[in-house]
Amino acid sequence: xxxxxxxGDQGMxxxxxxxxxxxxxxxxxxxxxxxxxxHLGFGRAVAASPRSxxxxxxxxxxxxxxxxELAFTDELRPAGYVLSEDRVARLEELTDALTAEVDLPxxxxxxxxxxxxxxxxxxxxxxxxAERSAxxxxxxxxxxxxxxxxxxxxxxSFLFLLARFEDHEAGVTxxxxxxxx
Length: 181
Prior knowledge:
It contains five helices and four strands. It is mainly alpha-helical.
């Protein structure tokens, strides 16, 4: 089996039920989400807390579900490939639980005090890009599931909090972004 087919050499790729340009907004969002889940994998690999790893696996699986949802045309998408409201609720539940454990600084922080925190901050920034791509897709009528936008909006908040949790677990206080005058 070859790893490449050459079918995309002219700038086209397959959705399940359609052939589109590789610059199609659905493909762009799938790419953004793939990048987020890769950064989450790195964060998971270096996380100090086993709980972080468990939570990140959940999120990576949710993102794969969103990518699968986007990979189908509306006519062919099975019901099992649609992100449900309960996944948004789960992310909210995780965020609330973590909020009770982490004292957030009352100022902006510079990412990079720990490897895990930095990886999660990169994932957060890419998740924000994915959210912007999802908004574009929704505005163009190609994203009919409002739970995807809700999930991505919650995700960046959770990842910021998880990065600070990882910093805390490593015994590090994040640096202030602005030096006091």
